[in-house]
Each structure stands twice: as structure tokens, then as C-alpha cells.
UniProtKB/TrEMBL annotation:
Organism: Pseudomonas eucalypticola
PROSITE patterns per the UniProt record, alphabetical: RENAL_DIPEPTIDASE_2
Keyword set, alphabetical order: Signal
Biological processes, Gene Ontology terms: proteolysis
Descriptive protein name: Dipeptidase
Keyword Signal: yes
Pfam families from the UniProt entry: Peptidase_M19 (PF01244)
UniProt KW DNA repair keyword: no
Signal peptide location: 1-19
A GO MF label: metallodipeptidase activity
Highest taxon, organism lineage: Bacteria
Segments passing through the bilayer: none
Length: 404
């Protein structure tokens, strides 16, 4: 995810529907629907805070900005994925650590509550075999991940609590440096991992939690790759060769990740896919809007709708360049060429700012399958890209813990 000038941008999308010339054939749709399709980074728990918002009901991103719900998952053949416990970075103070600790546990509770309220629709997955079994039952697979490990800063032993509650992927840092690691989009503080961050890497390996290097600085990437006893993942990252944004990975690091058995999951966050121009007026307007609506969970449905409309008005008045499906495919195909289809997947950053013109929500995922088939990739390749590689790297992390 990109820098939040205000918390509201997590739940809102600037995209409007545009024509796209990708026609998904009946044969491709049938193939896509029978594959196990998993996304490695879903920020949908943010929508679970909205009063009256029901994930089992169909929504429209043009009305409320949401991109994932059960009807659209069915349409797009999305069997599930990793639902992220995302915590906004707070000041590095006692108060900030306390806030992060409470916020993270509250988000974890929302995810577990979503499963418990809808037992015929969702099921918690702890292992790759769980995911296959749950999907075969016609339910949606819910793995749990953490984006920004600041909730653990006050008490690193909480990692064991999260693990017992289902956490199976851990990203140490987000858009700002924290007490564990440096971010790709901030000035270096630790020159990589802090001592506590290194300890957390060791503990994640011991538990069999998959380590995620998306949002991490190059130094953190290098240090985690060197220290980890198991393969690692970049759960939502794109190509620096295609667009030189620090959140993207260069070809050398992509090859290093693959050489150690890891996987890169390509994202659809437009700000990382195309170059941006400085836009201080947009930033100022978004900051003012965030000051008005700083607590999404407290908004009524009417206020939430008004917030989205205000955000869209700002986006219209102060537009940024937006990527389309062609640009996303350029990133995806480049990374496939660099590391091969055994080390690539999809982590679109849905409900966290992801989505490009022509691929605005999860109902449109079969377009990617059509584009991959048109580019010459096989059914086996698609099976790996849509879920096989993700489950393989998770299994490797869990196998490493068992051996330890």
C-alpha cells in the first residue's frame, strides 16, 4: 500500500469504469474457475469496520470504493487469500506502541468474527492443505497476515498469540520506519533491521510464519533474505525495471528471491506502476478530508458514502496518472520473464488502494488469465501463478519450522 495522507484512503478507490478490450473466452473462464485462485494481500478487513457493510452482499466500487465481497469473489473465481492485519504507523512512543497493540488485535478480531459469523461461507486456513480442502468445499479461504509489525513492538511475544489465532504471514514494516525495520519509502533509521527486528525474523522462522518483504527497504530485503532459514515472499510488489519506484523490486533482487525459493506477488497499485508527478494541492486536500473523517469505524453508512464522493471529487480536481490493465501486465510479464512462472503470483492490494483501469475489482480477475494465456503461458503456469506458488512457499516456511 501507498502512503496514507489520511486513514480514509485505505478504503477508497479513485477508479471509474473504463472500456477494456480484453475479452475472456468461455474456455478461459472455465479454466480460471477451476483453478485455485488466491490473493496474497487483501486489505478487506478495513471494510469490516464500516457500519452496515456486509461482505456477503454485493457492493459496487463506484459507490463505496470496496473491491472484495463474496458475490464478486464468486464472479471472479477468487477462492480467498491472506486477509491483512494492517496497522497505521504511529509515533515511536509509549502511546504509539499501545495504540498499535490494541489496533492490531482489534483487526485480528474482526477477521475471526467474519469467519465465525459466516461459517458456511468462510473458513480459516492454517496450512496449504487447509486451503485446498476449504476451496473444494465451496467456501472462501481465509489466511491471516500482518502488514506492519508495530503491534508487536511493545511485546514481541504477542507474535505467539497471533500465531495461535491464525497468523501465517508477517510483514515487518509499512510506509514509515518502525521499531523493527526500515521502510522502502522513508529515510533509513536502522540501516536495515533493528536488533528486535532480527529477533522477530528468527521467531517467525521458528513458528513457520512466512516472512513478507513488501514495503521493506532494500537493506531489510537483503538482511531478511540472508537471515531467514526459509524462503520468503513479497506479498504485493512490482517491477522497478518497469517503473523505478522504491516500493518495487529490481531484477537482481527478484532473482535472489527466486534463487532461495521465494515468490513475488505482483500488485495493482497504480502509484507504483506508473510515474507520478508532485501534486501538493491534492495532498493538501486529502489531508483536510482526513482531518474531517479520521475515524472510519465511527462513520454511518451515509457518512461513508459522502466521504467516498468527496474523495472522488478531489481525485477529479487534482488527478494523478493512473495505470491500466496493459501497464499491470507489463509489470507481471516482465517479472515472469525474469524469474519464471514458478516464482510469481498475484497480490493486488485490493481494498488498500489497488486496482487499475480495466481491473477495478475482483470480479474482473479472469482478464488476467486471458492475458496470460494470450502471452503463451500454460494451464500449469496459471495454476502456479494463481495459488500454487503461494502455497508452496508457505509450505516451505512451515516445513522449515518442523525441521527446526
Amino acid at each position: 500500500m501507498h502512503l496514507r495522507l489520511c486513514a480514509l484512503t485505505l478504503a477508497l478507490l479513485p477508479w471509474l469504469a473504463h472500456a477494456d478490450d480484453t475479452v475472456v473466452s468461455p474456455a478461459t473462464l472455465a479454466l480460471h474457475q477451476r483453478l485455485l485462485v488466491l490473493d496474497s494481500h487483501l486489505d478487506t478487513p478495513l471494510d469490516l469496520t464500516r457500519p452496515g457493510w456486509d461482505i456477503t452482499q454485493r457492493h459496487d466500487y463506484r459507490q463505496d470504493g470496496s473491491q472484495v465481497d463474496v458475490p464478486r469473489m464468486v464472479d471472479g473465481g477468487l477462492d480467498g487469500g491472506f486477509f491483512a492485519v494492517y496497522t497505521p504507523q504511529q509515533p515511536l512512543t509509549d502511546e504509539g506502541r499501545a495504540y498499535a497493540s490494541a489496533y492490531g488485535l482489534a483487526t485480528l478480531t474482526r477477521i475471526r468474527d467474519m469467519i465465525d459469523r459466516n461459517p458456511d461461507t468462510f473458513a480459516l486456513a492454517l496450512t496449504p492443505e487447509d486451503a485446498r480442502r476449504i476451496a473444494a468445499q465451496g467456501k472462501r479461504v481465509v489466511f491471516i497476515s500482518m502488514e506492519n509489525a508495530e503491534p508487536l513492538a511493545a511485546d514481541p511475544a504477542l507474535l505467539n498469540t497471533y500465531y495461535r489465532q491464525g497468523l501465517r504471514m508477517l510483514g515487518l514494516v509499512h510506509f514509515a520506519d518502525n521499531e523493527l525495520a526500515d521502510s522502502a519509502t522513508a529515510l533509513p533509521h536502522w540501516k536495515g533491521l533493528s536488533p528486535e527486528g532480527r529477533q522477530l525474523v528468527t521467531e517467525a522462522n521458528r513458528l513457520g510464519i512466512l516472512l513478507d518483504v513488501s514495503h521493506a527497504s532494500d537493506a531489510v530485503f537483503d538482511q531478511i533474505l540472508a537471515q531467514s532459514t526459509a524462503p520468503i515472499i513479497a506479498s504485493h510488489s512490482s517491477s522497478r525495471a518497469v517503473n523505478p519506484h522504491p516500493r518495487n523490486l529490481d531484477d537482481g533482487r527478484l532473482r535472489q528471491l527466486a534463487a532461495k525459493g521465494g515468490v513475488v506477488q505482483v500488485n495493482t497499485y497504480s502509484d507504483y506502476l506508473v510515474p507520478l508527478k508532485p501534486n501538493p494541492e491534492r495532498n493538501k486536500a486529502l489531508a483536510a478530508l482526513g482531518a474531517r473523517f479520521h475515524n472510519l469505524a465511527a462513520l454511518s453508512p451515509e457518512q461513508s458514502h459522502a466521504l467516498y464522493q468527496d474523495y472522488h471529487a478531489i481525485d477529479t480536481k487534482y488527478p494523478q496518472p493512473k495505470a491500466d490493465l496493459d501497464v499491470f501486465m507489463k509489470h507481471l510479464l516482465h517479472i515472469l520473464q525474469v524469474v519464471g512462472p514458478e516464482h510469481v503470483g498475484i497480490g493486488a492490494d485490493w481494498d488498500g488502494g489497488g486496482g487499475v483501469t480495466g481491473l477495478e475489482d475482483v470480479s474482473q480477475l479472469p482478464k488476467i488469465s486471458q492475458r496470460l494465456l494470450d502471452a503463451g503461458y500454460s494451464e500449469k503456469d496459471l495454476a502456479n501463478i494463481w495459488g500454487g506458488n503461494l502455497l508452496r512457499v508457505l509450505q516451505a516456511a512451515q516445513d522449515g519450522a518442523a525441521k527446526g
